[in-house]
Structures are given as structure tokens and as C-alpha cells.
Design goal:
single chain, YdfO-like fold, 25% strand, alpha+beta, 131 residues, 6-stranded antiparallel beta sheet
């Protein structure tokens, strides 16, 4: 992986986790770094970024001190997504809300323009990127 690609992914990861950029900015910056998808695992505290050539980069983050809800509530996940899309919550708050809703992780399919959110028993909510 080129140093510039690594640096772009790292700075985007940091800014998102600090709540200083919105999801659309995250996607835009990752497109510029040629990232085709990334997976966030709330339970393990890692985000893994995938490039088309097979390169990957895994970055760690602190796991939730409050735990993750045991039941997947797709309506609550959708509500957190909508709040983020409207700019009412930034990523740190989105993580808390989605975890409370029983979301254990998600995959952002940049090339496919959607996000798949997962519950601990395999439940899934798919959210298409807004046009």
C-alpha cells in the first residue's frame, strides 16, 4: 500500500472517530484513496479497509464501554442513520446509537453504494446511499 493511501485512510479514520467529518466526506476521501469497501467490527474494535488490488489496512479503535444491545432493532438503526444523514449526529454519537440498537458492525460497500448493518444473530439492515 502506498504511503499516501495509508495516510489518507488514517486521517479519514481519525477525523470520523473525532466527529469532525460527515459520512459523505468519509466516503469521498476514501474514494480518492481507491478504497472499494470497509468493514467496522464494534465488538473487536477494528475497521478494515479493502482496496481493489487486494491490499488491506486494519485500524483499531476503543470498544464501547456501554456494551452493545442484545436485540437488533432495525428501526432504531434506521433512525440513527437518518440522524447522521441529516447532520444531527456525528460518528461518535452514531456509534453509540447503533450499538444500543444491537448493531455489532457494518460493511460500507463504496463501489456498491450501500451499507450492510449486522446484528449478533445475523440480522441485517441494508441502507442505500442517498442520491
Amino acid at each position: 500500500m502506498q504511503d499516501s493511501t495509508h495516510a489518507t485512510i488514517q486521517s479519514t479514520f481519525d477525523a470520523s472517530n473525532e466527529g469532525t467529518i460527515h459520512f459523505g466526506q468519509v466516503v469521498g476521501q476514501l474514494i480518492g484513496a481507491n478504497v472499494e469497501s470497509y468493514h467496522v467490527d464494534y465488538r473487536a474494535g477494528r475497521s478494515t479497509y479493502y482496496l481493489p488490488d487486494g491490499d488491506t489496512l486494519t485500524l483499531d479503535f476503543e470498544t464501547a464501554g456501554h456494551g452493545i444491545g442484545s436485540d437488533f432493532d432495525s428501526d432504531a438503526v434506521r433512525s440513527a442513520i437518518l440522524a447522521a444523514q441529516q447532520g444531527r449526529v456525528m460518528y461518535p454519537e452514531f456509534k453509540r446509537l447503533s450499538q444500543q440498537a444491537g448493531c455489532v458492525g457494518y460493511t460500507v460497500w463504496i463501489a456498491g453504494r450501500h451499507v450492510s448493518y449486522f446484528g449478533r444473530r445475523g440480522e441485517t439492515h441494508v441502507e442505500r446511499f442517498p442520491d
